[in-house]
Amino acid sequence: MSQETVDLNCIGWDVHIVSAISFQENIRLALLRNGVIRAVTRVLPFIISQNTSIANRPLAARCIVNASAFLNTRLEDLDGVPLVIEAIDSDVIPSLMKCEPLLPYADHATARDQPITLLGSVLARYTIYRSVLRPTLLSMDAVEASRMELNLIKDGQLHQAWIRLKEVVAERRRLLGHDIADGYHIQSCQNHKCGRAGEIGSFKRCGGCLHTFYCSKACQRDDWRDGKHHLYCNGVHRRYLRTDGQMAGLRQKDIRFLDQVIIAELRKHTARINAHHLKTNVVEFNFVGQNVDTIFDSRRVKPAPFGIKCSCEKFAHEMWNRMIEKAKEAPEPLILARTYIPGGMSRKVLLRALPLRCVLEDVSRTYYREDKNSLTFPSHLSLAYTCCGRNSLEKETTTGKKRLL
Ligand SMILES: [Zn+2]
Ligand SMILES: [Zn+2]
Ligand SMILES: [Zn+2]
């Protein structure tokens, strides 16, 4: 018996209207702050739970497609990560696993692709963040336990998306179990003239951009003026203000986990790195797309991150060039890794200098003990650069200095 008391046409239009008004920035920010991701995600299980008559299935399919399309676009708003977590906590994964019977009723192939892209692509790439990976694993384990996979059309598109998600998280799940010893995660004072290193958490953070670290007030002052930190910081700080403080930035735990991911990725290329016999190996990873893109040859690494669309990216690029220069003075062979990670509207790049032997050997045992107390700049560096989220090289003003937090 069908329960046609629910107005599917109305729900489909509601989601469509939410999508349409979300193009207005101030409305979108208010909606995101008030849980629109959760609300739209919950449309999925609600529609699936209805015993929809054949005549109404095209309307039900439209609700699923509209909700998935909205999530595909808006999960990557702001910093991305908190919104993706919100969707996972609202059971987006099991809901997507159950939507397949309605998909043939969708208006066209592009519409049908929306839930598939969401599962196999958008959600999969954000599992590079530990804070996304953990709830994703819980949700996937529940899906596995209930044997939902068996209901999918074998080798159908949704099945393939599920397999892709499983493959991506399988490797990352293994890395979760191997957290590197604390002493391995070192940060450097980001005044390039100083270069002192310390345990993550021992340095003070810039109160403007919230993710640049200094050993002292003197170093912050120096970098603000001479290191042109103000150009970067003001852009990122304006983004923070523009979004009513909704931009969160990278969490320390996520950065620690990214270390693991980068090293695991580098270790897949050990033979190649050894064969190169280079003092400085330059590697670029791109985790933003469907697959991990790796560029190995220093000469072929694109000179400009993200094509340099704004002053923060220009700044990150200058820091990268400076790292390459400094690497030449290092006492031992290094790997410089430039890694792009998904991060919503605030595109993110991680610049890391790693001693070659810490990549080739077991870091948790050898690197930590020997080098913890004798670090100088190029030996180890962790920098994360985010972006103001604006595609312009507009003239930056140099307003007041920022506090250390
Ligand atoms: Zn700053
Ligand atoms: Zn310093
Ligand atoms: Zn920017």
What does this 3D model show about the protein?
This protein has 405 residues and is of the alpha+beta class. It has two domains: 8-176; 182-385, no CATH class. Helices cover 49% and strands 10% of the residues. It has 17 helices and nine strands. The strands form three sheets. A five-stranded mixed sheet has the order 6-5-7-8-9. A two-stranded antiparallel sheet has the order 1-2. α6 runs parallel beside α9, α9 packs across α10 and α12 (229-242) packs antiparallel against α15. The longest helix has 20 residues, at 157-176. It is globular. The protein starts with 7 loop residues before the first helix and ends in a 20-residue tail after the last strand. It binds zinc ion (3 copies).
Number of domains: 2
**What class, by secondary structure content?**
alpha+beta
Instruction: Summarize the amount of helix as a percent range.
Output: 40-55%
**What is the H/E order?**
HHHHHHHHHHEEEEHHHHEEHEEHHE
Task: Work out the helix count.
Answer: 17
The main pleated sheet reads as:
5 strands, mixed
Low-confidence stretches: 364-380, 394-400
Bound molecules: zinc ion
Which strand order spans the largest sheet, edge to edge or round the barrel? 6-5-7-8-9
Mean pLDDT: 84
Distance between the termini: 62 Å
How many E strands?
9
Oligomer: single chain
Question: What percent strand?
Answer: 5-15%
Radius of gyration: 23 Å
Shape: globular
